[in-house]
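hey so u asked for the seq, here:
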Amino acid sequence: MKQYLRPVQRFIYFLLKNHAIADDLTQEVFVKVYKHMGSFRNESSVKTWIYKIAVNEVKMHRRSSWFRRFILFGNINEELAGYQDDSEMSAPEQEEVLRVVLSLSPNYREVILLHYYQDLTVAEVATILGISHDAVYTKLHRAKKQLKERLEKEGFAWT
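ran it, structure tokens below
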């Protein structure tokens, strides 16, 4: 839990853009992990298993009538520190890219966040989302294309 709590919480927050809901769903994820740890079959890594549970919790929440009526958006600035990477982009550039990633549709946002921000392989992303490897590659390709177009439209200067 110590290793995955914060990354899973951040991942859920970036999908739903609401701290309170992210906290609640993160708690649900780790309650399920605790309850079902004995039935974990080691067919994937623990990280992949936990993220699959997180994605399923988010999907169940999105299907709820409450979520369809109210979409809340939070302030992502305080979360960005956890996603700063070692790339050559400056913090403001990383912030801009993440802001545009968060503006993508949920399907594209999921694959980008899982693959690039959570450092999961295509195989792990496919397992988590319950789709084929080819579908992951297709979604990544389309998401990156949309991301590039949106960043160029906003005048993002590639370094």
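The mean pLDDT is 82. Residues 31 and 139 are 30 Å apart (CA to CA).
lmk if thats what u needed
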